[in-house]
């Protein structure tokens, strides 16, 4: 890989790591933050929800802004804003400031994440290093949450919960310096703004994510949950209808209609259901049932991070170039499903090495193959002027998938634990995750087009 491309990959991977870390690193710090700031259990969820609401609802808008101002400008602006928001959260003297800072992190993360993927897509598209680059990116996207659990435990245990936010300032400063030196100047593009589409998709995604969040606390049949979910669905249907008639649509529908890209978006949604639920339920199992400390629980996830990296690298660098995208995504989804099925064998006194580790490794390898392959096609074939919105679409499906997974599997787990005990709840959650990954395998196997084999050079000359 040429040095200039390698530097771009390092900068983009570090930025993506920072965004992914924040999905899990604060979870470990929550008990300490709650004790320090004195907020109640009912308020605790908003420290996590404020980030996911802002991030999930604004990703498509962030992608379009990147297409307008240029990915480099969006990338650096997102980094700077994320760092300022993180510093505010680390300093937070009370609950209100902490939640405000988390929401601001989500806003700038929604600008940063699609910019990172767009830069990667345009830099490596059509090169011999494309598979390797997306393998690295997929490893970060799939395994960064495990690193966040470890880092959160270490920082909370050795320094303070506040450093789970301050650490972003250090990372962002280094990445900004690298971006200013490495990335080419941004190319701004004029264009009209799809204000009706923007309003519909932002409010629709906000209502949908809020509804899934409310279901965890209020239940699926509560009027507030049903109202949020219903409003979200209606507004998103209206958004799709509006985009078919907009002169300059926020999300040009041909981006989604592509068989390869559309399948990748659906696969990423299903894969996120399993991935995010693993971090949540297995972290609870390791600490509450097996008695692991936060730091030890983080260490226990490291083999998964390594296996994600291996699966992603192998898929991006070797399998996709040789077999196309369908085989590695289908096989990876099936392997991840097998890993979740293995985890349904955990018990109250089982050993980590025999009952948890094999499942982690299987799920990690499979998820790595899915992320490394599916993300490489997120902006494949789109014009550079639309790379940002295409990249934002795959990030949006991943975020929505995570929200759906946590909400659905939490409800499934609570129902099972109410009749069969805590372990039965974990079993139900992992069975649900396995079903989601099995569905991803079916979707990939059926919907991805067959790979077109290029004729060999000798055949072309004859």
SS strand fraction: under 5%
Distance between the termini: 32 Å
Note the main sheet. none
CATH architecture type of the largest domain: Up-down Bundle
User: What percentage of residues falls in helices of 4 or more residues?
Assistant: over 70%
Per DSSP E runs of 2 or more residues, the count of β-strands stands at 0
CATH topology of the largest domain: Growth Hormone, Chain: A
Mean pLDDT: 84
- The CATH superfamily of the largest domain is identified as MFS general substrate transporter like domains
Oligomeric grouping of the chains = single chain
Question: Shape, please?
Answer: globular
Task: Please state the CA-atom Rg, rounded to the nearest Å.
Answer: 21 Å
Describe the structure.
The chain has two domains: 3-185 and 246-449, Up-down Bundle (Growth Hormone, Chain: A), CATH 1.20.1250.20; 197-245. The longest helix is centred in the C-terminal third of the chain and has 34 residues, at 387-420. By secondary structure, the chain is mainly α. The protein has helices at residues 3-21, 25-37, 41-69, 71-91, 95-124, 130-158, 163-182, 195-218, 223-243, 253-257, 259-289, 294-323, 326-343, 352-355, 357-374, 387-420, 422-447, 457-461. The radius of gyration is 21 Å and the shape is globular. The model is unreliable at 454-462 (pLDDT under 50). Helix 1 packs across helix 6, helix 2 packs across helix 3 and helix 3 (41-69) runs antiparallel to helix 4. Keywords: Cell membrane, Membrane, Transmembrane, Transmembrane helix, Transport. It is found in: Cell membrane. Its main location: membrane. It is a multi-pass membrane protein. The chain crosses the membrane at residues 45-62, 74-92, 104-122, 134-154, 160-183, 195-212, 224-242, 263-286, 292-320, 327-348, 360-379, 400-416, 428-448.
